[in-house]
Write a sequence for this structure.
DNA sequence: GATAGTAGACAACTTAGTTGTCGATATCGT
DNA sequence: ACGATATCGACAACTAAGTTGTCTACTATC
């Protein structure tokens, strides 16, 4: 039995973990067993038009070296390609492949399914209250960058 | 703007991160700048009567080797001591020092303060709804072990 | 054209975990 | 009593994801 006060962080961490585990269990069932938690967030950051490694690092809140590693992983799985930037000979543009798009669409669908499970168990009103409450707390301190949260993504 | 469905995990992660950051900012102000996020959870797991390294590993959900490393860190800061187990010549019992107890009491007080901040901003009812909702989701899949959540604790 | 800044690669290090192995000690069944 | 089996905690080697620092190539600006 924890000291009072220790409950809330454990609940938040546990629920997050539960969502991510559920996502990757289902992703694996649909042929995306190699996907790691960071991949979905990185693919989102890359966006439909593609960005450079340095920009990816900034958006994720990590160094460009760390972003380069993540990009290498994404490229190896086949979720992105690298192509020379038309306007800047130093830069390479990371672009999502159709398979990357598919993984992202699938992830969104799975998250929505998991949310529906919550609604079934808690009711729409309480799920909405959770989302609104957390949003009020988080947005008041600036947006959350994935890189703010070190290691999880394993 | 993320795809719909990606909101919820980001909210959970961001809120958790916010709590932990707030905790350690205040801990540092009170002379516990060396404390890492895992330390509070490990001290809780050790309990008032002390446990062995192996038991700590089981409670945290990590290997005993990893638990031994955490215990070494706690001992170095002065939060725990190791003493031979009276009944088992193989085992050493990890016991919280007064300074360890102080850190734990302080952490609990800070968490409660942060929760009061939430109540001030959201109202008691909505905070309660968040806690109840998350608890309903997490407990239905077994308790959360700290070790279920790999890296964060840096 | 010199100077200052940015893109991305390479190397070395850090941190927190893992598996596998091992000797010492406990426990249990016959 | 004793042998098989299990557990405690240490050591070594490895992995994964980040970090800082340094470097070259290229861009942009005065």
């Amino acid at each position: 039995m924890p000291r009072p006060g220790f409950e809330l962080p454990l609940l938040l961490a546990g629920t997050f973990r539960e969502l991510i585990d559920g996502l990757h269990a289902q992703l694996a069932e649909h042929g995306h067993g190699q996907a790691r938690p960071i991949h979905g967030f990185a693919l989102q950051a890359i966006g439909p038009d593609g960005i450079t490694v340095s920009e990816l690092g900034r958006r994720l809140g990590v160094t460009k070296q760390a972003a380069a590693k993540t990009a290498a992983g994404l490229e190896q799985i086949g979720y992105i390609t690298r192509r020379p930037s038309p306007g800047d000979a130093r830069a390479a543009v990371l672009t999502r492949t159709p398979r990357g798009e598919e993984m992202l669409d699938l992830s969104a669908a799975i998250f929505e399914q998991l949310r529906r499970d919550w609604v079934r168990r808690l009711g729409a009103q309480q799920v909405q209250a959770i989302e609104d409450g957390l949003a009020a707390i988080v947005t008041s301190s600036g947006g959350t960058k994935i890189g703010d949260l070190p290691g999880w993504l394993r």
